[in-house]
Amino acid sequence: MTEPGKVSMEKIVSLCQRRGFIFPSSEIYGGLSSCWDYGPLGVELKRNIKDAWWRAVVQERDDIVGLDAGILMHPQTWAASGHLEGFSDPLVECKNCHLRWRVDDLKDKNCPSCGGELTKPRLFNLMFKTFMGPVEEEANVVYLRPETAQGMFVNFQNVVNTTRKRIPFGITQIGKAFRNEITTGNFVFRSREFEQMEIEFFVKPGTDEEWFNYWLEERLNWYVNLGIKKEHLRLRQHTKGELAHYARVCYDIDYLFPMGWAELEGIANRGDFDLVQHVKYSGKSLDYFDDETKERFIPYIIEPSAGVDRSALAFLCDAYDEEPAEDEIRVLLHFHPSLAPIKVAVLPLSRREKLVEAAKQIYADLRQCWIVDYDDAQSIGRRYRRQDEIGTPFCITIDFQSLEDKQVTIRERDTMKQIRVPISELKAALAAKLSGEDLFVLPPGGQIWKE
Ligand code: ATP
Q1: Is 190 close to ligand 1, i.e. is its CB under 6 Å away?
Q2: Alpha carbon distance, N-terminus to C-terminus of the chain
Q3: Does ligand 1 have an atom closer than 6 angstroms to the CB of 191?
Q4: pLDDT along the chain (451 residues), means of 10
Q5: Quick one: how far is CA 307 from the chain centroid?
């Protein structure tokens, strides 16, 4: 077994490239620094993470609604938010090798690369700038959003007016964000284009502390419920020095990545900073009238802000495992079934026509419900390994006996145990197992095949 938290980044990167989770961006041109492309399996993993988020925060709740604001926003947004001025990292440059470093990341006074002398810190804006319309002049400057949050603040009044949501309630959004990061690296952990999943939860001032604590716990549980080991997560409070200009209190949910503990998600009590700023810059009223108490106030905001890419990396690292199996090492990803890119693989024992025909029929039927793979190349053992390595929870094997008894075997990824079930019961049995039912809970006519 791989020791918890001990998988190397090299192994994760190699698996991701080998099996089509994540590729370097525009690789045929030598790649683009800190940009990544998600391959056929990666795109499914990301989609599943976003679905799990949406399910937990929108579908299963009645106090959060969704939004999809544009990546390009009115430039005043960024003046109000403080990003135009403050969204900058103090940087120092090495006088010798000219590499730039974030002051936050420095452990001593000299350049971490060559030991050279460093300049005084300077501010550097992390927003990507572009031009709207055909003329490239300052009046037409717009920015690629560096966070999804602002889209939710500027739409606060629209949501209040068009839904019957009353405070406390939240808005959530999933989408791309762009930052011209200085210190990149560690694979998709810090890239220049990434996806965020954020909630802006509007509460009455005075109840903010309670809601903050509520969201800390909710968000931590979300990762644990999706299979991340508790001991690989921790909460870390921001010190006064590192607290962002808008935040009253902030905690990071850190994950034990291969390079050490690092932020997976930030949860901040933003107070009324954002709405007050947008009132100031837009001249519009963004206050809220409480029908019950007849009070008018500007709500406080509690913000859980997570990254899709960092989550994908954490789920990959946590799921990774190696174990000895019949003279070789079995590599497997113990993905939670709801995150696994492929839920079921259909494997005919041989390519004999009758078997293929029966297998293809099952394949077509299961595809109505899930993303399913079909594989008839090489030995059955090799095919099981291939599915284990990408985290497919169940393999269905169709053998010659299947043609007689109309039964197939279901093999479970983690235990490699098998049951045999009537084809007529297969879909219902898989649905139950994918929802967490024990493999050995048998459907009608089912039997234990391999213990
Ligand atoms: P860091 O200090 O690690 O750069 P941050 O504190 O700037 O992160 P936030 O502004 O709190 O990050 O963004 C919220 C979340 O968005 C982060 O917890 C992370 O999951 C994700 N995120 C932020 N920047 C990046 C990035 N450059 N690449 C990938 N994900 C990111």
Answers
A1: yes
A2: 20
A3: yes
A4: 72 97 96 95 98 98 98 96 75 76 83 85 83 86 96 97 95 96 85 97 97 98 98 94 86 97 97 97 95 95 98 98 90 98 97 96 98 96 97 98 97 98 98 98 96 90
A5: 5
